[in-house]
Each structure stands twice: as structure tokens, then as C-alpha cells.
Amino acid sequence: MTYTAHFKVWRGDADGGDLNDYQVEVNEGEVVLDIIHRLQATQASDLAVRWNCKAGKCGSCSAEINGRPSLLCMTRMSVFTADETVTVTPMRAFPVIRDLVTDVSFNYAKAREVPAFVPPAGLKPGEYRMQQQDVERSQEFRKCIECFLCQDTCHVVRDHEENKIAFSGPRFLMRIAELDMHPLDAAAEEGLDRKVSAQDDHGLGYCNITKCCTEVCPEHIKITDNALIPLKERAVDRKYDPLVWLGNKILRRP
Amino acid sequence: MATGTTSSTESADSSPARRGVHTQGRAAIPNRHLRTDRWWVPPLVTALGLGAFVVYSTWRAFANGDYYAAPYVSPFYSPCLASNCTDMNGGADWHLFGSWWGISPALIVLIFPLGFRLTCYYYRKAYYRGFWASPPACAVAEPHATYTGETRFPLILQNIHRYFFYFAIPVAGILTYDVVLSFRDADGNWGHAGLGTLVMLVNITLIWAYTFSCHSCRHIIGGRLKHFSKHPVRFRLWGWVGRLNRHHMLLAWVSLISVALADFYVYLVASGAFDDPRFF
Amino acid sequence: MTQVERHTYDVVVVGAGGAGLRAAIEAREQGMRTAVICKSLFGKAHTVMAEGGIAASMGNANSNDNWEVHFRDTMRGGKFLNQWRMAELHAREAPDRVWELETWGALFDRTKDGRISQRNFGGHEYPRLAHVGDRTGLELIRTLQQKIVSLQQEDFAEFGDYEARLKVFQECTVTRVLKDGPAVSGVFGYIRESGRLFVIESPAVVLATGGIGKSFKVTSNSWEYTGDGHALALLAGAPLINMEFIQFHPTGMVWPPSVKGILVTESVRGDGGVLRNSDGKRFMFDYIPDVFKEKYAQSEQEADGWYADPATFRRPPELLPRDEVARAINSEVKAGRGTPHGGVFLDVSTRLPAEEIKRRLPSMHHQFKELADVDITAEPMEVGPTCHYMMGGVDVEPDTAAARGVPGLYAAGEVAGGMHGSNRLGGNSLSDLLVFGRRAGLHASEYVAALGTGRPAVPEDQIDSAAAEALRPFSAEASDPDLPQGQVAENPYTLHQELQQAMNDLVGIIRRAPEMEEALSRLTDLRMRSRRAGVEGHRQFNPGWHLAIDLRNMLLVSECVARAALERTESRGGHTREDHPGMDRTWRKVNLVCELSDPSGGLADTDPERGQVTLRRRDMDPMRDDLLALFEKEELLKYLTDEELAP
């Protein structure tokens, strides 16, 4: 079934811009990214958009469709009615570069601030032994395709630019959780407490667990339930729970 | 040059026109949001539901009456710790507080289940969204000029959730004891079951399910371990709690409704508005 | 003199996929100031699309496995056209490269005793692929990306600057390798975001740009795969080899049209999926070639027994090498037994319980559900061949990954040729990236260290002509006074679509001489029109402009493919000639070498009607005796000529 759809696409740059109207052909089975490509090929050859794999695996084509942070390549046109206006804008938590392309350098800067995996001393390559049940939690977080939609939707930075300094956002708090749950990460032996660092250096306390990150995650990672809340509980272990502290003192569990 | 490192954080102008999604440098779109669905329905329903419970429970907690109809006791009033409690025939009416406590004895104990739910990770989401609009819905701009989340007083106290979890266990234990007692008839003879027994049984099941599905519980029971493989029993328990935890929101709501219904049922029977049908 | 941004580094790596990042890590660890340039954002490279795993003979699943078995499998898969020394190095070093990833934080699936789990794959004798579910490529990229970040953190601690010794220039495109006489002296390119031009002076350049799939209409490759590295090497005077060998993966999605070509992993068949035609027949039993008759099941019963008991039963024919399966599907569709959308059915729904499918193939389930509205636990998929991998590439020294003929130029990964011969085995690409990525980084560093202070200079005239070339699409209309004001001469998107259609139809999976001649003439036409390709707007993040520049590379590479495919009058691996259906032993040791017709590299000045590349034949080095001894004589007879075997 082919029809002509009404699209509104934001065009402009850091100095300003507008929602532009387009009438564009839509065929059966297409996704929003196909329509954007058709616009490029027929009506707006310089329409800027990021994309790579077109299969939901690289996380490049993040934008907002009818106000919802989404991947352009994973939003099928069949979810809209033929007479519905489809509005496509760049992600609104980051500075815009041009059209649908935003400056996501905030995320790369935050990625650098998370201390890397610390290999255990005394284990050579090939000597690592880990059980499947011990790696599964971190494996879930490593499914992340870094589309940064969670960072985009998180109201902590989306609605409060000033919090970008103190808050690393769901993606990188999840990265800390991933490392803290890694069965062989030796950060603690090196004197780095990732739990305390999550709270003190990465703004875990800003998260008020309203779960928008989980809602928008195209990989369906349970960011809030499996990463952020467990990380908050781990921070409580260190900072707010004398019972656990006492238990550790008595039992001397490493 | 595009190296992914230039900090995008500019000096924040806090005037509403230049705040949040309208910050200088972001795509210039006047709308606070562009969502076309009925995004306001979930927070509205949440606010109405929680609001209804608050009104109802405030009335019942202060009422100080019609909370015991042998052998049933309202979950709002158990354990009952002041001297002004009704005699409950072997029930949890332990007069620890003496006679100086003059107002409703429900207020002594309710603080614990209330605190448990108030600091619960699900309810936090629900009321931050429903009452505080922080945020009202995903990608819908919140109305507040500043935001510090749970980093400072009073919201930093949310971190004590696990203490309320510790307290929630004996409270649920006492409510379980109440259910056991409801298998006696009004005279204290075993072998009774009425509609009230069933109501209390369903309620306590949901309360336990909600309690064990708690995120703090999941953490304490196994989530805090680095190596599940070295703790097979706790790993299995963690798995079970995890399965319950996936339904934490659902359990939060149904147990909230069931606790109100159980109380309301006792109220109806105690006030004489309804006769408890007896099964055996 | 053109105004450009200028930087100086010791080593420049073009491409930030598996090979590029591994090369950069190595160069930085060798003490070189290293720059990585990538067209996309850091961490988005096409490597993330790899699903199955990394082939390495660690022997975790079967202790009989070792590098010699892996080497044999690789040579057989490539039909003995592989550069044998590369295949040897690859098989020997792959386990170390995988283990190294663990020390950087990678989390592979585990065996019961806690080691890295390994899975079966087409062409591999033992379970050999280290994997993470069906998203191994993502794990590889993320691990390398995070290793780079950790090196930057070290530099931050030491110098107070994350980028003191290792910097990623993301969303930048290199359009020319610059040279001082014969030797590399830097790269020229543009920043996609701003459209500004830049030069990085560097005596060593590692090409790691991946493949050429975007020259074809139906492909599993992402937009970046425009053959940039292949073209940069050619233009810098380095030859390409084996360009006729392109792997068509047998199972790509065929519907809806917008996702046509997206990969359906081989694991679907490995886990029990079967191929059926529109008559419901499991047709693969009719397509088992004689050389494989002893190794594959002849009946459905026998094939079905294999999944549970591989020791007693022979493998199902759905697990024949990729080239065989792709040809079989192609034949069924041509014979009119295809599905409504022009593929065949791949069915796993009647073979496994729904829960099991979701557990084993989570991303396939997700992909079909979200993109095609097909529930693979309840209905069959429709699949068909898709352009997947370029076996050919830059002609390199096997040990050093240095491009022959151009000092300072290195190539690793898909852009390098030789390693996989005429057909690549699944799982061998990720290990290839790591083994030769590291080698390229290492030897580039050694080359730079040996240079001392006498580094090649960047000639200003090369910068001027590179800048003129890059900016030409903006002045295209000016060159044609007949066109109305403001109207663009040729739409780059249209040219690209025509190129893809031509390559797909005429130099695709089954090839015929007249069609390839037709392809060459269409390429000539496209090349002439591409000179008039113009774009609207300005230089800031302008995709039309980017495509106009990429077209030069795709046209160059496509011409290599078409010329080499026309020249090789036999069928072998990823090259199937309908007019020459058999494998010819005399062609076995022949490499077809592509070189630029005008060695000065000045494309603009060449006559567009004449071809831009020329071909020559070159004999491969004979295989070392100890490696030959790894094979049975009878097997060698199928591939090698009598005189090669004589001594």
C-alpha cells in the first residue's frame, strides 16, 4: 500500500531552525529512516541525518519522532495512520549541529570519566575463569548500542542543562554497574570503590528512578531495575547502612 | 574538530525561555514537548489512585473505631500497641505504649508500612511523576527551574528504604498471625473460615509478594554478591526474588488495593453494615 | 595555497572498526602518537553487525583443535587461493588476540569450567567461535573502544590531556593519501560536521576501512562501506588483488523492501533452521556438490539426526559453505520456486520450541518482529542472498601488513586482500581484524621508529589538488553553462542507485561475460556523469556532498570488480561464472592485480571513457612444504596442478 504522508522535519542549526513540511511517498513495510532517505534523494539532498546499519544495531539514527526519543530505523511507518502527521526532530537534550544531527560529545566526555576495567593481578591472558551466571548481569548491560536515547530522555539533563556537570546519565551509571558486577574487575584492590564513586563522582543521587531510560531503550535493557537501582543499593551498602558495615566487620568477607 | 570531547555544558541561563529543552544551542523548537499520544493519562491515573488511598487511609487511621470484628482485625490496626486498643482475644494487641497515647493506635504502626511504600522504588517513580511532575512523562519537560534529585535532604532519606524493608517483615509476620487467628470463630474455637478469612488471606499473600519483590530485598538476598557461583543458595533465592521483582509495580498496586479492601471489609462487618458469610 | 587545518602524528589509522582500533591500540602502546579517523561516531563501525563469533583454535570446546586444523579449514574455505602465510599467522595468533580481549574487559559466553565457550560454524571442523549470544561484533567493538579510553585515561593521568598520545577524529572522511615521492607523508580529508578540510602529516597510514558493499543494491553492509580504503590505496599507487571475489551471504532478509539485504545469521541454520522452496521441499539435498558428497547428509532423517548426535550422523546440507548455499537459493528462485517476495523460506518455527528460539536467537527474533512483523517462532522467514564481504583488497606483505609498493602504507581487515582467498569462513573476519590490525599497528610503528627524524614532507600542490577535488561537487553546475541557474547537474543519489542496480544485476552472484561487458560500459557512463554530480546547500554536514565524494571510490572499486570478474574464466568461491562453471587448477595460483591506469593518481585528468584501472596476472608464491604436509595428497590434487605437486 503506497500513500503520501505528511512529514514535519526540523531543519536548522545552532542559530535557529523550523519544522519544515513535506509531502512524501510511503510504501508498505518502510521505516521512518526510509522516508528520511527518500526526502534526501528527492526533495532535500542536504538534509543531515546520522545512520549506519539500518538494523537497530549501531545506535546512530537516534532522534525524536512525534516527541518520543526513538531510532529512526526501528520505527515502522505502520504504527502511524495514513492521515497522521509525523514530526521528526533531533534529540532535544543535546546541542544541535544541523537538522537531525546533534552534538553528542557530552556522552563521550562522560565515558572517559568512568575508570576502565582493572585486570586482576596475577592472571595472565588465557587464565581468566568466569562462570556464566556471574557474567550474565554485566552482559545484559554490554548489549548497549550507545544510541544515547536514555541520555536524551533523562529529565535530569534534558530539563536541566546545569546538571550535565555532575550527572553522568543512565548509560554511564550502567557502565559503572557493569564494571562493579564484573566478576574479575580488580578496582577495589587498586583502592577504587566504584559504588562510592557512582554516588560521589557520577551523580547517582540525581536519578529519581522515573524509568524513562528503560522505556526508550531499543535493546530493552532493564536499565533502572537491573543497573541503577542495584547500584543505588550498593551505594547504600557503603554509605548508609551500618548493619551491612557491621556485618562486613565481623565476618570480614572480602 | 570533531573529537567527541568538547564539553557542551555552557553557562546555564535559568529563565524559563532558555531552560531545559530551550537551552541555547539545542534545536530551536518552541513546544515543551511534541508528543501526540495521551501521555498525561498514566500520571493522572497514578495521582488519582494514590490520592484516593491517602484520603481513605487517613480517614480510617484517625477513625479509631470499627477495626475489630472478631476474629478479624483490620491490617491498619495490627499490631495494636496502645492501651486504648480494643481487646482482640489473643491477637496482636500488645499495650506497649501505655495509656498516655490518647489518639488512634493505628498511627503508631502505620508509619512502618507507609514508610516502606513511601521509599519504595516503584512508588517513588509513581509519585515523582504523578504528583511532582518530575517528569510528568518521558520527554515532556518538567515545570521546575532546578532539580537536585535525591542528592540532598530530605530526598536523600530515600536511601533508608532497606530499613523499612527490615521493619516490613515483622509487620507482615504479625498480619500473617492475624490471618491464622481468623481461622478461629468469634469465641476462639479453631476450624472457622468466613469471607473475611479469605479476604485477609488474599491480602497477606499480596503483602508478602510485594514485600519480597522489593528491590532492597533483591539486593540483600543476592544482588550485592560479586560471584553468584560461590553462593548457589543465595543465587537461587535472588532468581526467585528477581522474578517477583519484575512485577513490583503490579504487586504495589494490588497489595495497596487489597489492604484497603481488607480494612474496609472489617469496617463493614464491625460497623454491622454487613454480615460475614461463614464457609465452615 | 589552500587553507586547511593541520595536525602531525606518528601513525594515522583510517577506520575505527575492529582492525583500525586494534592497530591504533598497538601503535599507541609502541609509543607512537596515534590518530584514528572514522566516518561515523566512535563505536558505530560496521564491525558491530558481526553476529556469530571470533574463530580461534583455543580448544575449549574440543581439545583436538589447534592452529593447524584452523589453518586447514581456512585454506579449504578459500579454495586454496588464500595467501597461505597470512592464513598461517591468522590461525597461530587468533587465540592470543581473543584472550587479550578478556584482559581489557570483554565478557564472552562461558563453558561449564569457566573458560570461553566456542560454537560450531560452517566450514570449521571443531566448535571454534568465541561468542556473546548473537552480538559478538558489538562486544568486540565495545571492548576495543573501552581499551582506547583506558589508554587515554593513562595519558590523562600522565599529561593532563586525554588526547596527548591517542586521539579519535570522529565523523571525518579521508579523501586522499598524500605522498612525498614514493613514501606516504599524510592524509587529506574533510570534517563532516563543519565541512572544513584538514591535513594530518604522518609518515605511516594504516587503512582499515572495511568493504565495498554499498556498490551493490542488496547488501548487508552499512553506508560506510563505500570502498574508501580500496580506492585510497589505488590512488596512492598500491595494487589491489582478488577483487573478483565477493561473498554473497545466502540468507539476507528480502522483505520488506526497505530492509532487503539485512543479515540473517548463519546460526539460524546451525541451530536447526531449514531451507524450503515454495513447494515446501527441502531443496538443499539437490545441491550437494560432488566434493562434499561424503561429508553431508543425503536424507532428511539423517540430517535431522546430526543436531543431537554429530558423531553418528552427517551434517545437513543447509550447512554447506556460504557460496554453495547462496547459489542454490539463487537457482531455486530463478526456476520459479521462490517465495512471493523473491526468496526462499528459512524455517525454524517448526523445528524448535518458541522459547528455545527466543533464547538462542534473541536478536533475530527481535529483528524480524520489529522490521518485518514476522514472528519467527510461528512462521518461516523469507531469505535470499545478499552482498556481504569483499575477499579482495590491498595487496599486502603477509607479516607486516604493509601495502606493496608504497612505503608507509599499511592495510588490515576487510580492506586487505589475500587472507581469505576466494571465500571467507564465518568467524574468520573478526579474528582477521585482531591479528592483522595488531600487526599493522606494530609494523607501522617500527617503520616510523626506523625513519628517525627524516620524515617525508607533505607537498603543497597535493593539498591544493585534493582540496579542488573534494570541493568540485559544489561548483558542478558552473561547469555546464547549458543548465538553468541553480539546478544541479547530476543527482548523486540517482547515480548511486544506478551504480548499485548495475553491479547487482550484472556483476552479482552469477556472472556472464556479456553482462560484465555491459557493466563496464555502464560504469564508464556513470563515471562521466559523476564528474557533473553536484550538490545543493553548504558544507556543514551535507550528506549529498559526502555521497558525491564517495561515488568516486565506489566507481573505482566497482571497475576493479567488474574487470577482474570478466578476466577470471573459472568459478571459485565467491566468483561464479555461468559460462565457466568449473574450478580450474591452472587458475588456482593466479592473482589478478588491479592498478591505476594513470600511476600519477590524477583521476581528474584521465579520459573518462578509458578505464581507470588495468589488470595484470601474477603467480602466487608456492606454499611452504611443512604447510603442504598438513593436507592429504588426494585433497591437494583437487586444487593444485600436477607440476605444483611434482617435487
Show the largest interface.
A-B, 71 and 67 residues
Kindly provide the radius of gyration of chain A, computed on alpha-carbon positions and rounded to a whole number of angstroms: 22 Å
User: Helix count of chain A?
Assistant: 10
Q: Could you say what the CATH topology of the largest domain in chain A is called?
A: Fumarate Reductase Iron-sulfur Protein, Chain B, domain 2
Please estimate the helix content of chain A. 25-40%
- Supply the helix-strand structural class of chain B: mainly alpha
- The count of strands of chain A amounts to 7
Inertia-based shape of chain A: elongated
Q: What is the C-level CATH assignment of the largest domain in chain A?
A: Mainly Alpha
Oligomer: heterotrimer
Overall spatial form of chain B: globular
What does this entry show, briefly?
The complex is a heterotrimer of chains A (254), B (280) and C (647). Chain A is an alpha+beta fold and 254 residues long.
Description:
Chain A: Belongs to the succinate dehydrogenase/fumarate reductase iron-sulfur protein family. Chain A: Pfam families: Fer2_3 (PF13085), Fer4_8 (PF13183). Chain A: It comes from Streptomyces fildesensis. Chain A: Keywords: 2Fe-2S, 4Fe-4S, Iron, Iron-sulfur, Metal-binding, Oxidoreductase. The complex is a heterotrimer of chains A (about 250), B (about 280) and C (about 650). With about 250 residues, chain A is an alpha+beta fold. Chain A is about 35% helix and about 15% strand. Chain A is elongated, with a radius of gyration of 22 Å. The mean pLDDT of chain A is about 95. Chain B has one domain (about 45-270). Helix content of chain B is about 45%, strand content about 0%. Chain B has 8 helices and 2 strands. Chain B has helices at about 40-65, 105-120, 120-130, 160-180, 195-210, 215-225, 230-245, 250-270; strands at about 70, 70-75. Chain C has 3 domains: about 5-55 and about 135-245 and about 390-455, FAD/NAD(P)-binding domain; about 250-385, Flavocytochrome C3, Chain A, domain 1, CATH 3.90.700; about 480-620, Methane Monooxygenase Hydroxylase, Chain G, domain 1, CATH 1.20.58. In chain C, about 35% of the residues lie in helices and about 15% in strands. Chain C has 19 helices and 20 strands. In chain C, strand 9 and strand 10 form a beta hairpin. In chain C, helix 2 (about 65-75) packs across helix 3. Chain C is globular and about 75 Å long. The relative contact order of chain C is 0.15. The mean pLDDT of chain C is about 90. The interface between A and B is large, with 71 and 67 residues.
